[in-house]
Amino acid sequence: MTAPALVALAHGSRDPRSAATIKALVGEVKAMRPDLKIEAAFLELSKPSFQTVVDRLVKQGHDEIVVVPLLLTEAYHAKVDVPSAVAEAQARHAGLRVRATRILGLEPQFLEVLDVRMREALRAARVRELDALVLAAAGSSDPLANQAVARLARVWGARHKLPVTAAFASSSPPATGEAVRAFRAEGRRHIAVASLFLAPGFLPDRAAELALEAGAITVSEPLGAHPELARSILARYAVGAVELVPV
């Protein structure tokens, strides 16, 4: 029996760096499981679209697909866009079975990736001292999504014994610049900002710009193509594949 295909479904961006990073991450997944049919797809703004990838998989003979949403928080895209895209795919292809898994989310092990990116940024800036951290995320109108980022920030701060504030690039305060200025008002001068984004794009760039204008000493790169994320994608896929098995 052929294993279900895996579609890693990202939001998409007009910034070409975003799609390139997502495809590099999916490349990591493919390297770990060369036996699986694995594709990257996007909800909007980047190619290939989800429906294009589904059409291609069906044409190749696949009748089961596990979709892993490459989203970090349970906000609008996870609750509305992904289910809508899956429903449309199933309506267009009789007999096709599609299972969307939980989003990639904010796993505690992603703190390892944050640390890697932060060490890279600190080395590049030749910084050896820190007295505060800001965890910058996209932000959402959904308070539960923002609370998930705040919880991760607290765990990260406890790990490094440093004060950490969660900041957001859109929809919710504080912005990264505000978070940095608040720490500076407390007398802290060595403030670094971590980018809790999967890939580069407008929002990460804006968050970094505001942070540096406010006096941050460095801003790390987004999580990007890292084996830890690839392993989490495969873990989501494994659950989704089991859920497709008839009972």
Describe the 3D structure.
With 247 residues, this protein is of the alpha/beta class. It is built from eight helices and eight strands, in the order βαβαβαβαβαβαβαβα. α7 (202-214) links the parallel β7 and β8. The chain is elongated and about 65 Å long.
How much helicity do the residues have?
40-55%
Instruction: Tell me the overall shape.
Output: elongated
Strand content: 15-25%
**Rg:** 19 Å
Mean pLDDT: 96
Q: Supply the number of helical segments.
A: 8
Biggest sheet layout: 4 strands, parallel
Structural class of the helix and strand makeup?
alpha/beta
What distance separates the N and C termini?
16 Å
Give the ordered list of helices and strands.
Answer: EHEHEHEHEHEHEHEH
Arrangement of strands in the largest sheet: 2-1-3-4
Number of strands: 8
Low-pLDDT ranges: none
Features:
single chain; about 250 residues; alpha/beta; four-stranded parallel beta sheet; elongated
Quick overview:
With 247 residues, this protein is α/β, with parallel strands linked by helices.
Helices and strands in order, then pairings?
Layout: E1 5-10, H1 16-32, E2 38-42, H2 50-59, E3 64-69, H3 76-92, E4 97-100, H4 110-125, E5 132-137, H5 143-160, E6 164-168, H6 176-185, E7 191-195, H7 202-214, E8 218-219, H8 227-243
Parallel strand pairs: 1-2, 1-3, 3-4, 5-6, 5-7, 7-8
Helix pairs in contact: 1-8, 6-7
